[in-house]
Amino acid sequence: MRRIFRNMGWLLGGRGFNAVLSLVYLALATRTLGLDGFGYFAIIVALGQTVTGLVNFQTWQFVVRWGAGEDGAARAAGFAVGLDIISAIVGTLISAILVATAQLWLPLPDELLWVAFGYCIVSLLSIRSTPTGLLRLRFEYARATAAEAVQPAIRAIGAGLAVVFMPTVAGFILAWAAAEVAVAAALWFAALQKERLDLREVSLTAIPRAHPGAWRFVLSTNALGSLQVAGKQVMILLVGAVGGEAFAGGFRVASQLGQALVQLAQTVSKAIFPELVHAKERAADIARRMANMALVGGALAVLVALFAGREALVLIAGQEFRVVYWAMVILAIGGAVELVGASLESLLVSAGRAGTAFLVRAVPMAIAFACLDVAMGWQGLKGAALCMLGASSLAVIGYWVAILSQQGIRIELDNEEEEAEKRPAE
């Protein structure tokens, strides 16, 4: 637990630095672009992050899971790099299709289509899960945090430059693209200082030969990671498709401020996963204690959003975004739910039940997408936020049921083994 809290401290320190600077560049972007312009910006960023999230394998988990041992890290990193190359190729094709058809379902003007495609390509080339995994494998959370701090710093500086020299949607997208490239370079630099990467080890067959269930784990974690992206980025795209660019911009602001807890949940998950892998016997107890602490933290954060959220919205984004207050509060509640569920999801994945975690997340998300049009017709942005809250709540309940079911199976097996041991003696 001490190491978990130390690692989490580094991750939360990085998140805190990111949170402060994110308020700076969010304020600059919203006040410079306005509600409609920020909506276009939100749609382009969501497109890039959606494509990257859909094709990006969770290679950091593979490196942590299979990287132990003298040659394990090199072999696991080679497998991860091979998957990253596949992600970039497939993602480029998907980007071309999405951008070519964007005007059929998204409110994007002609002049921003190439900007959107360029941002998608930069995001794909800046995939950084593998170096992150190499750093976490060696518990180098301090190095990882320092490298990841490059992203918010470049975004804030770039947003300031955009306000002065290029106060357009394209100017802010350039700033975000530069930040993606910079943080990827920083993470690779930090990782290669601690671990040698041999390009001769790049292979898609070595790890599956040594670990027969590797591809099942790879595909399950990829699908689960894609769903986590879909929960935020695809929802922004769908909100824009249903309600227009102003709705997309408003939902992005409400999501960024209200669902800061979701990012905290991801931080908890990243800090706890290596420990759950290495401490199988105590994994359930660790996850339970983390979930209990998350419940308290989530409740406090929701109270802050409820009583101080309206003033924060006006202060950061301006009066124009005041209307998204209740959507922000609902998303904050959803973030608190996700915070509780983060350790439960990590427990399932670390136990080799990534497929179960995927199904538990997929079904509620599909229901949320199906209900979005009706919910927005009923309550606008609040309806979209309620869909997100419902999906998160059902997923966390599902995680809990799946864990209890798994423990029940283990108890039954233990009882059978005890009876089998007694029979010879009888």
Which H/E pattern describes the elements? Answer: HHHHHHHHHHHHHHHHH
| Regions with little confidence, pLDDT below 50 for 5+ residues | 409-418
User: What does the main sheet amount to?
Assistant: none
**Helix content range:** over 70%
Spatial extent as radius of gyration? 22 Å
Provide a brief overview of the structure.
The chain is mostly helical and 426 residues long. 86% of the residues lie in helices and 0% in strands.
Characterize the structure shown:
The chain is mainly alpha-helical and 426 residues long. The chain is built from 17 helices and no strands. Helix 1 crosses helix 13 and helix 6 runs parallel beside helix 9. The protein starts with a helix and ends with a helix. 54% of the residues are buried. About 2% of the residues have low confidence.
Keywords:
single chain, 426 residues, mainly alpha, 2 domains, 17 helices, 86% helix, 0% strand, globular, Oligosaccharide flippase family protein, transmembrane helix
Topology of helices and strands:
Layout: H1 2-55, H2 59-66, H3 72-100, H4 102-105, H5 113-125, H6 129-137, H7 141-148, H8 150-165, H9 169-194, H10 206-210, H11 214-243, H12 245-258, H13 260-278, H14 283-317, H15 325-350, H16 354-379, H17 381-425
Protein name: Oligosaccharide flippase family protein
Keywords: Cell membrane, Membrane, Transmembrane, Transmembrane helix
Membrane topology: Multi-pass membrane protein
